[in-house]
Amino acid sequence: MADSKVETISRLAQWRIENFGPGSYRKSDPFKVGIWNWQLSIEKNRYLYIRLFPETSKLSKENPPIARFVLRVSTSGANRKFYISPVHERLLRTSEDFVWPVDSTVYSRFIIDVEFLDLKIWGGEASSIYPIDGTMQSLSTESTLRCLARMLDEGIHTDVTINTADGTLKAHKAILSASSPVFQSMFHHDLKEKESSTICIEDMSMESCTALLSYLYGTIKQEDFWKHRLALLGAANKYDIADLKDACEESLLEDINSGNVLGRLQEAWLYQLNKLKKGCLTYLFDFGKIYDVRDEINNFFKQADRQLMLEMFQEVLTAWRPL
């Protein structure tokens, strides 16, 4: 069926329904969010019943998901209406594990949004799939990482001092130079950093700079990476650390929502992150989330770059698909 496809971006899934009348039933095509394939179904009698469930598979049987999510139904026309569910957290195995009845005044043409706030693998101590532990350490062996961690934590043969906004840190010129062409240039040419063996990074706090060093030494913890993503992005751009910049962009793409999308769009424009910029514009216009930020959009436009505003206008003309 033409409108059985569900579009996804980040943790948001959107299903556009056309010509759905009383006594009807429809099931979506499978769509992937997290590590599972999902499906939605709708049935209309007295109420519109919406079900969310994982596609039947070996994965969903052996490792069923515990999903924390919220649904929204939006109608078309001049009197656009929104029906928003409470936040649900359910173990989902079959189509009978979750059903949400919506008032029967929903028209025949509408949009169903599912926003996944968290996904966990059921069993024992249910663990979130966001973030995935160990992704920052996949390129190095444990023994090498232990040595680098000791060098940093214990200050073994450190030869450079870093002055941050609120404290000082010790590091190694060789590690910094191997990680960043900007640092390498500082120590190679006759600059003040080479002579004094001191670097000033006063636009970072000591905590966020510690996270930067932990990344460069291969010992960063995932929770620290997530906490300091924006500071790390600024440092990656400033010191030309391409792999860190890419990692920050991919991470910021994973949890776009109405509360952060305008900020993410501004960061994407500032640091020339085309994937993140496209993701934010798609979220706002293709998925219709511009309605959710109408109170904040005026302040955003007062500060936004003129060229960015032009791109947003072009996105409205080319990508907006009203019902």
From TrEMBL:
Give a single Pfam family match.
BTB
Pathway(s) this gene product operates in, as recorded in its UniProt entry: Protein modification; protein ubiquitination
Superkingdom of origin: Eukaryota
According to the entry, every stretch annotated as the BTB domain falls at: 158-217
The family database entries (SMART domains) matched by this protein are listed as: BTB
Annotated membrane-spanning segments are none
Q: What is this protein called?
A: BTB domain-containing protein
